[in-house]
Amino acid sequence: MDEMQKNLLLKFLADNGVELSADTLDKLYKFADLVVETKEFGNLISPKDSEKILSRHITDSLVPYIYMSKNNVALKGKRWADMGAGAGCPSFPLAIAMPDVQFYAVEPRNKRVQFMNFVKDELHLDNMTVVGKRFETSGLAYLDFISCRALSTFENDWERAQPGLARGGIFATLKSYNNIVHLENDPAVHIYKYALPQEEQEYALVTRGNE
Questions:
Q1: d(CA 114, CA 171)
Q2: What is the SS3 assignment for 157?
Q3: How many domains are contained in the chain?
Q4: What is the pLDDT of residues 108-163, one digit of tens each?
Q5: Domain assignment of residue 183, given as a range
Q6: Residue 119 Ramachandran class (φ > 0 left, ψ -120 to 50 alpha, else beta)
Q7: What is the CATH number of the domain that holds 166?
Q8: Helix crossing, 3-15 with 59-70: angle to 10°?
Q9: Cβ atoms of 101 and 127 closer than 8 Å
Q10: Residues 6+ apart with CB under 8 A from 130
Q11: What is the reported pTM?
Q12: Among 3, 7, 82, 142, whose CB has the most other CB atoms within 10 angstroms?
């Protein structure tokens, strides 16, 4: 993995008051390498995105962890599902950073499911379960957290997630800020704005609790 990319990730973490262990960072780098280099399951990422896998995709995936850490959210023993997990962002970086949380990467496309199971075995992620279904038919319920990254509109994603959340559970989604600016005055949501290394646009983590 490119040293400049590693340095951008480390600076992003430091700027947000987060320090990860050497073992955690090694697993994040290994995950990034697997996404870029593994071709047997199809092209998982574009050549352009491959060049900024750490500074764009891994950093973005870790934002929910940073947010939860800053707000002292209790995580140990919690259950967290990621809808439309794709090739594993944000679910795998989050599972690496939060080994005490049980993660479910929910993804209907078979090649992506095969890849994520391969990664799970390669990284020995005992807190990860890959679910090869759409979230609505996954059978997952009473979850503490449900996330997704750039899947659909906030409203559509919330509608899909809400039935699977426990009372008091949290839905968290990563979006371009431009796509959620209309939510600024919605009292039901909380918006956490952030910038990614070498990216011009502004991003947002949007959370909503299930009352």
A1: 26
A2: helix
A3: 1
A4: 999 999 999 999 999 999 999 999 999 999 999 999 999 999 778 999 999 999 99
A5: 3-209
A6: alpha
A7: 3.40.50.150
A8: 20
A9: yes
A10: 85, 104, 105, 107, 113, 116, 117, 120
A11: 0.95
A12: 82
